[in-house]
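name: query_chain
kind: protein
chains: 1
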Amino acid sequence: MNILDAKHIFSYRKFWAQRFGTAKELPMSRQEMDELGWDSCDVILVTGDAYVDHPSFGMAVIGRVLEAQGFRVGIISQPDWKSADDFKALGQPNLFFGVTGGNMDSMVNRYTSDKKIRSNDAYTANGDGGKRPDRAVNVYSHRCREAYKEVPIIIGGIEASLRRIAHYDYWSDKVRKSVLLDSKADLLVYGNAERQIVEIAHRLASNESINDLKGIRGTVHFVKQVPSDWVIKDSSDIDKPGLVIKPKNPYQMEEETVCASKAEEGQKPAAVESSKISNKQRQKTIIRLPDYDTVKDDPVQYAHASRVMHGETNPGNARPLLQKHLQRLLWINPPPIPLTTSEMDGVFDLEYSRLPHTHYGKANIPAFEMIQHSVNIMRGCFGGCSFCSITEHEGRIIQSRSEDSIIKEIEAIRDISPTFTGNISDLGGPTANMYRLACKDEKIEEACRKPSCVFPGICENLDTNHTPLIKLYRRARALKGIKKIFIASGLRYDLAVKSPEYVKELVSHHVGGYLKIAPEHTEDRPLSKMMKPGMGTYDAFKKMFEKYSKEAGKEQYLIPYFIAAHPGTEDTDMLNLALWLKKNGFRADQVQAFLPSPMSIASAMYYSGKDTLHKVTRRGDSDVSIPKGIKQRRLHKAFLRYHDPKNWALLREALKNMGRANLIGNGKHQLIPNWSPKEGAASGDPKKGKGKTFRTQRTENNNRRAPHKKKNHRVR
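structure:
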């Protein structure tokens, strides 16, 4: 991965339409186009979100980046998908339609982890639900094709990104084809798409055909056949599914051991990759995954494909992937080269209005209300949590903005926002404290295939110096007119404890009474499948948090998040978590049940029943417990809300079946009482408890394009 080899996204010669200048807001109607002097749009972006011209909204970012290249960009927001009429509203685009479901996967946006329809949508005016279809990328693409048959269609955003290969779909409970096939689009861009979309737009503007755009990093397309100068390497050569390796016989020759194990499986010995393929050939090697027809019917092969795919996500060493879908060959190019700090600054320094489009009038858009006074300082996450979608979308390489660019945005909020009262609601990103953290050696980083830099422990090659972030905090809060800067993004506390100075800075100046962190569980069994640190690290951070809060003369609390029903979790694990919650005086107001988002490691576990963090086999040694049944999932959630009388009957039955009836009673060390409230009685613990009740409002599985921007959590 050589960033110098990637063309700077703002170095292209601008398209001739730059003469029209910068629009106050990108047009959503023909009338607005006329006012701008446009006879047509070069690019039309279709989105499932309300259009908010703010850098936390994907369509605004892509639209403004393309505008900065000189293209005329129109927005079709939340169109009526029952006909093609709304898709013709801006006329025919000269170059392409860009289609996204929005900042969240449309299925995650509409359905809970229990597959119940949500009543609202934070990305819609007034929070109204039902303004986007299920599988919005597919539906919108079909309507674009119906509107203008010959116009290229390019799909992107979180929904397309996480469905770029054959993937397990929780809502239909089956493996679905790549969204590129189902949507009938021409090209898919995945990840943060600025680099890809700029190249695509300029090449199409130079009269290249959409079919000529092959091999662009961060894109997926179909090929008729693999070019003759490429080497095809089967994924089974990298990670053989189904092979059980017996303990080595110390008296047996190495060659005999290999041949014996292969013979047992009825397979020929695989070639050794490093000795058979030269460095030059590696650059022209494509990894062939099991085809769609295989993985849709064989969970072990699906788990194997997932393991191989996740091993090819480092831009420094990733190779293209090939997967046959029916009679078509899907070609997945390596991830895009991360943006440089200069490019990141350029993206965030564009002329966003930072407001919803005037089309919405005074309507409230909940997602905008949460992030309007927040600042995104970086992208990416190297945590590798198995249930999270951020890494699959944004990658593990941290892309940071410069301090000057961040300060400039804070000043813009202060000077421009009509509702600003002096408080910045967040200064963060996918993870609050990964700003400017990276591998100490670029060569090591380029060669690494580890899924996480911090699990099972923090890598010795990771630079955990928080000094740049501390410096940023101090400069930001010293700005005139800034009263308080909160840190609301999720904190990686195992990194934070490596820098006591950072924890002191955070606790003393940037916590609004409560700080959210995510242990996710207390037990090693589920934590090992989540790729999260043990509770010893939590305890160490808690000790530092309380120490520095006391020194600052502040009464502050940690608000921990936990997940129920995650792969690898057994009933006893949830019981132990409930006992920990009671011991520490926590009462969760709302709880999070695991939702298998497309393409995540944990989703592969959920579907296959295999621990995909290790070699998968057809025998039981790689099996992992999966809480799938409705009753078991309900029970696991009930353990998190042990204090709610509505759950007592279910918990009482479970405790008896588990042989833990001793936890039923009114004693201090018992979990639930042996009585139930009278019908019609108020919900809640009838005793005046001493516990802290906390509200958790996390978006399920981090499945959204923009980083988390939340209000501070309230303890009631």
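note: The chain has three domains: 3-216, 219-241+271-334, 373-643+685-702.
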